[in-house]
């Protein structure tokens, strides 16, 4: 691990930017149609519970990252392959975020640029920051969170003053009952983006105040969840359920409809810049998680040595995940959110806690318990 430390403000910024990622611009949880904003709030409760699990494990093993306490709890013979599985998951998930970003940029702004070129430039920026270390990434997040807040306030003011919002599109709230809302919350939105936060298990050990991690994480999750819910409610109020659910990039379509006195129009750059910033930090955090686990598994003293090879792997994997957008979306729904994220973000952490408590109860090993 690096000899580095981050503070609670930086952790707060990293969590918010990570949760925004591409979830801010993609149509998430549209099974619940006009009630998607309610599904986000319901999934947020599940996200808080998941973070409680991650924080508990972090407090039991404050000096170890995810792969370190997996091997301590399960033993090296089982823990090493499980940690290797997480390494592959983080690389693949990072590649998907990179591919999503490239496809969205090609669709909206850079239609004559090959996706590989877009992905390569974004990954170059990610690798440069990661090579400088987690402290640089965290300080950068503080700055860019402020930029995202300014862009968000401006964008929402423009939408409001353009008079294109129709709150009737948000009703009826329970047109199909509670079932679609709950299904959307826990099958889709809890997995994307909240359960993906398992990668922060590799970042929490760098926090300079162990006891502040839970409170900071909770506040950041609540803020990001509320803002995601508000943003998607605005999108539905502008576009309506049918267009929202069929759109690849509803936030872009929403802002493109802004027209204030035939003077303020074509504000697409706000959404494009928001996408690039959020996707950059999500890619960087996922890639960093992969680097830390690889360094731990293969006993590399300086994780920066692995930044380039893992970054190149992510880049080429991003182009091989699917042949087209339809295949990419289907694979994401069935395999990633249906199997891999529930396994890595929920089932394995719960199993780790159960095994830890059993071993601790029967004195099978001495745990460093700081919390």
Q: C-alpha Rg, in Å?
A: 20 Å
Named CATH architecture: Up-down Bundle
**Can you tell me the CATH topology?**
Amino acid/polyamine transporter I
The name of the CATH superfamily reads Amino acid/polyamine transporter I
Overall 3D form: globular
Secondary-structure class: mainly alpha
Which consecutive residue ranges, at least 5 long each, have pLDDT under 50? 367-371
Mean of residue pLDDT values: 90
Largest sheet: none
Number of domains: 1
Strand content: under 5%
Distance between the termini: 22 Å
Number of helices: 13
Helix content: over 70%
Number of strands: 0
- CATH C-level: Mainly Alpha
Order of helices and strands: HHHHHHHHHHHHH
What does this structure look like?
This protein has 371 residues and is mainly alpha-helical. It has one domain (8-353): Amino acid/polyamine transporter I (Up-down Bundle), CATH 1.20.1740. The protein is 70% helix and 0% strand. It has 13 helices and no strands. The chain has helices at residues 8-20, 36-60, 66-74, 76-108, 115-132, 134-162, 178-189, 213-239, 241-246, 250-256, 268-297, 307-320, 325-361. Helix 1 (8-20) packs parallel to helix 8 (213-239) and helix 4 (76-108) crosses helix 5 (115-132). The two termini are 22 Å apart. The model is unreliable at 367-371 (pLDDT under 50).
